[in-house]
Amino acid sequence: MNNKLNLFVKGILDICFFIGVALELATPFGLKYAVNIVIKFLGETTEYARILDHYAYAVVSIMLVGGSALLILYELRKMMKTVINDDCFVQENVTSLVRMSIYAFVITGLKLLRCFVYFTPASLIVAGVFFFAGLFSKVLSLVFDRAVQYKLENDLTI
């Protein structure tokens, strides 16, 4: 049962990763279209209309955030392979968790910076979520590092 759940989660991560790659590639072409649809429903006075005033910045910042999110998904997919193989307390997972914390903090910084260019409440919320995700990932990397050390010591005693 556990392995079915692990394979299911890995499948979801794979789907999210490949959809994310497609969205990342579509951003420069589809953002203006998406913003115009939002404006059509919410009106010209919505803060999302300001995206068109800062379109180049919006494309670059969205692609940088999207790239960082894809890197997080990539690291999660690598980690899930070790979980599926029942060998999750390895140094590679510690490295993945540290990288994910860095990517999360990059997203936090980019979203906060965006608030100074054009503000949307979603940017502030996303910044907060990724800040705590970065902290959580950093703490987990320390826990995993300790577990790897215990495992190595235990392997040497046997």
Automatic annotation (TrEMBL):
Matching InterPro entries, A to Z? DUF2975
* Keyword list, A-Z: Membrane, Transmembrane, Transmembrane helix
Highest taxon above the source species: Bacteria
Q: What stretches pass through the bilayer?
A: 12-35, 55-76, 97-119, 125-144
- State if Membrane is listed as a keyword: yes
> Is Transmembrane a UniProt keyword of this protein?
yes
Pfam families tied to this protein: DUF2975 (PF11188)
What protein does this entry describe?
DUF2975 domain-containing protein
